[in-house]
Amino acid sequence: xxxxxxxxxxxxxxxxxxxxxxxxxxxxxxxxxxxxxxxxxxxxxxxxxxxxxxxxxxxxxxxxxxxxxxxxxxxxxxxxxxxxxxxxxxxxxxxxxxxxxxxxxxxxxxxxxxxxxxxxxxxxxxxxxxxxxxxxxxxxxxxxxxxxxxxxxxxxxxxxxxxxxxxxxxxxxxxxxxxxxxxxxxxxxxxxxxxxxxxxxxxxxxxxxxxxxxxxxxxxxxxxxxxxxxxxxxxxxxxxxxxxxxxxxxxxxxxxxxxxxxxxxxxxxxxxxxxxxxxxxxxxxxxxxxxxxxxxxxxxxxxxxxxxxxxxxxxxxxxxxxxxxxxxxxxxxxxxxxxxxxxxxxxxxxxxxxxxxxxxxxxxxxxxxxxxxxxxxxxxxxxxxxxxxxxxxxxxxxxxxxxxxxxxxxxxxxxxxxxxxxxxxxxxxxxxxxxxxxxxxxxxxxxxxxxxxxxxxxxxxxxxxxxxxxxxxxxxxxxxxxxxxxxxxxxxxxxxxxxxxxxxxxxxxxxxxxxxxxxxxxxxxxxxxxxxxxxxxxxxxxxxxxxxxxxxxxxxxxxxxxxxxxxxxxxxxxxxxxxxxxxxxx
Length: 586
Prior knowledge:
This protein is of the alpha/beta class and 586 residues long. Helices cover 40% and strands 20% of the residues. The strands form four sheets. The protein has a five-stranded parallel sheet with strand order 3-2-4-5-6, with helices on both faces. A five-stranded mixed sheet has the order 7-8-9-11-10.
């Protein structure tokens, strides 16, 4: 699909002159990211824990949360951690369960009083429900033993929108601490202790923590309090929790900027030497290697497998793997999760093909599809695939009887929320973000009315928007500029992710001098290109093999690419990873 290449404006000459010790292309990358002063460069290029990490005490209600947890310890009360079923919720739950148990053991409290609960995605839905509170009040239905009535409930990656359930818990004598990061609802659960960066009036500086990041702040404050009570934790003990923060920061797609960049940088260090038997087993099963893991490893190996549990079966499969302490049992659980992920891949591919069959012509405005038997946990994946293929807003619904559960995905230029707001009277519930949302509809009649309004709203939005996908390019450069020195500068910009994308360059009018496909069924494209001055660079285009029929030796092309390294048999050479290409002559 034709894309518009939006090349960042070149940084001012004065900026280059001010920092002559840096590679010019690295300076351009920094300027594109708003890094323009020495202080900003120091924070970006050399993250420092002591300087750049926010104290947990900056949360206004953190003292209350810490006091309530230790009161529960002292009274021998049941503490239940209630998480979400995605990777952020699983990691945040793991973080709090493991830290609460470690602190309890260190201070001779009863660690068996820490319990957990994650709702079933399809049967219960997102968040804390009144029905679950009823279970907690009776001492049954929790993820592990559930012997006693819960007296303290800690939500992770959910809770801020669950005022009715939290108020009900209060009426049963259950106190709640909310660790969440989602959008503010109309009514806050004011009967709870709120550890949330977006609560009105909140003083905590980092407004972009993931749910696990918020849980980490609570854990840090709890470790500090434990030390004052005589626990012999060494300085920095809580940093061993950062492997979980690193995973969740990537999988929940929060910006890897500011404090999050520091958490991710140090989190990757911890992830690469993680002590968790379950996580180590999962990494091995997924084909990863300790010491070589990065944000890509999280995004394509670890994250999908953790998410697969909640999408296909129950997130307990992921959570109980992550808290498992026996290596043999952990490997068995990791193998089970691997099979679940394979089933997820197969079923989502099948649903995608079924959805494609429903499209009788190429969509130009909006895709809205529904079918019996489509799993609620997979409709978002299918919507994302169709969005990538057709570049129009997509809503995919699974239908069970007369009930519909769906997910929406959209382009950068079309906000889904106005369409949902317009159809709100016909929706059972909905929520999300401009480019990704979830919703449910209680009847076929309501489905038809809602989707008609949603489509009309999106079509109206399209009339005022340019539907051409935008590819953000950091700089145009000559092939001669690709060097090991440049790669060294790019490496300093890691970790890459949301808000800090891997640098993308454009080379204009290069000639194709080598052309072939590689991989199963010729799926990938291998190019060798030459600059007008004779510089040659090899390139690889993953899933670009379809270009082989339209490209020829001698063609002149523009290519957008990332600089990477090709390693084989102990050899290393620079190469370009193709992101887009445009043939200028055939």
